[in-house]
Design a protein that fits this description.
single chain, about 400 residues, mainly alpha, Cytochrome Bc1 Complex, Chain D, domain 2, 2 domains, two-stranded antiparallel ribbon, two-stranded antiparallel sheet, 12 helices, 6 strands, binds heme C
């Protein structure tokens, strides 16, 4: 079955978008490249936003749409941090008084529009969906969550959002687009706001899909990688070393599509429990990703308990801390976890009363079998040599640094 690119609503974006990229990528250099927009990659020209998308942009940045008056989408999806959290916190603060901790680290929204709809492939592999557990079926559906979640923008209901929209500076524009009486039907008003935000996320290519990383220019044959970056790329791809590309693909697709650095599948890495998240003070609480508690529709798939969607690694240097619970503050620490989790588990997990290392301490015992222990780099045992040494980790990080947008060739 077709994967990622060609499945779901994403087809509507048009495969021809990649023709330009494919041409560049197959050139051996010296190609005449049109300037304007991102000339490294897939986005040819600066986008002109539709009226709905322009309204969506205002909504995205409007703090008055939250109960606290201090929180907008862009408070947690900060432009300077590739639209991920910018405060360095493991999980963001929100709620009516702005002090309630959320449950998960805020992901980058760059390239999120390429996420296929959630589905199981013919071999049973879960793919796609929005949020880290894939529970939202579209960007429009996803945006409802933060408006109403009591630990995020904390609107009590659609009527509260509608009242705030009606008081905003763009209320007349909202009426002009969606009807003079739109605010008399709060459910419809909220729905139109979600639609506008979605259009912004899809249409503003400069913000949501610039494709201006050094690596994009490298794929287009316009720059070379440094020795360390090139070593890092081969370690990243090598199935016996990092094996990162097995889940975070780094190559141009057969259709010329640029690599997303995620295959949008799910995996259970056994990330340690983060004691700084208030919800984790309850020893009975576990964030099990695809099987709950935030997601409820596939809870019977207990093999997915603890599985989270593979995130993109584009702009990863800007989006610390890392993993669904923000457990690791630096890329170095995140990579050490990958390669030393099984050889040196005591470096990552707490010890129990008897002194034994409590490996996979953020999963109930019954679900610890779900952790991936077969694929490199986590197919080792204590006493084995880690898949990457410190110098190799440094090279992989140099390579990951080439995935940051805004590179000036
Ligand atoms: C308080 C911080 C906060 C606010 C405010 C917020 N978000 Fe998020 N956002 C998050 C977190 C945390 C997640 C991950 C949620 C999960 O996995 O359950 C997320 C996930 C997302 C995703 C899914 C990304 C993916 O990879 O699937 C999108 C899209 C998104 N947010 C858009 C928005 C929009 C649009 C708004 C405003 C209406 C918004 N967010 C407001 C914190 C926030
Ligand atoms: C078998 C699939 C798989 C492989 C192989 C893999 N990853 Fe991941 N990666 C994931 C998943 C799933 C997550 C999200 C896990 C979570 O949040 O709990 C992730 C998350 C990450 C993150 C954190 C991203 C963020 O936004 O917080 C980084 C960094 C990362 N991977 C880098 C790498 C590197 C470097 C390699 C190779 C050494 C690698 N990954 C190999 C599946 C994989």
């Amino acid at each position: 079955m077709a994967r990622g690119w060609t499945s779901g609503w994403i087809r509507a974006l048009g495969a021809s978008r990649w023709f330009f990229f494919a041409m560049l990528a197959s050139c051996t250099g010296g190609a005449k490249v049109s300037s304007g927009g991102a000339d490294a990659g897939g986005v040819p020209e600066p986008a002109t936003l539709s009226a709905a998308a322009a309204l969506g942009e205002e909504i995205f940045h409007d703090r008055s749409l939250s109960a606290s008056g201090t929180l907008s989408c862009s408070s947690c999806h900060v432009p300077d941090h590739a639209l991920a959290g910018g405060d360095g916190l493991a999980v963001p603060l929100g709620g009516a008084d702005g002090t309630r901790q959320g449950l998960r680290n805020a992901p980058s929204l760059r390239y999120v529009l390429y996420t296929p709809s959630f589905h199981f492939e013919s071999d049973g592999t879960p793919v796609g969906g929005f949020d880290r557990d894939g529970r939202a079926v579209s960007l429009r559906d996803q945006a409802r969550g933060p408006f109403l979640a009591d630990f995020e923008m904390a609107n009590a209901d659609a009527a509260a959002v509608s009242r705030r929209l009606a008081a905003a500076g763009y209320a007349d524009e909202f009426r002009a687009q969606f009807g003079e009486h739109i605010f008399e039907d709060p459910a419809a008003a909220l729905d139109r706001a979600l639609f506008a935000v979605q259009q912004y996320e899809i249409e503003d290519r400069q913000e949501f899909e610039p494709f201006t990383s050094k690596y994009d220019y490298f794929l287009a044959g316009k720059v070379t990688l440094s020795e360390s970056e090139a070593r890092g790329l081969s370690l990243f791809n090598d199935p016996n070393k990092g094996n990162c590309a097995a889940c975070h693909p780094s190559a141009v697709g057969a259709d010329g599509s640029p690599p997303m650095f995620t295959d949008f599948t799910y995996d259970n890495l056994g990330v340690p429990r983060n004691a700084s998240i208030a919800a984790n003070a309850d020893p009975g609480y576990y964030d099990l990703g695809a099987c709950g508690p935030l997601r409820t529709d596939i809870a019977e798939h207990t093999e997915l308990c603890g599985a989270f969607k593979v995130p993109t690694l584009r702009n990863i240097a800007l989006t610390a801390p890392y993993f669904h619970n923000g457990q690791f503050a630096t890329l170095e620490r995140a990579l050490e976890f990958y390669v030393r989790r099984d050889t040196h588990p005591e470096e990552f997990y707490p010890r129990g009363e008897g002194g034994q290392v409590r490996k996979f301490d953020d999963l109930p015992p019954a679900y610890q079998v779900n952790v991936n222990r077969t694929e490199a780099p986590y197919n080792r045992l204590p006493g084995d040599v880690p898949a990457l040494d410190a110098a190799e980790i440094a090279d992989v990080i140099s390579f990951l640094d080439t995935l940051t947008d805004g590179f000036q060739p």
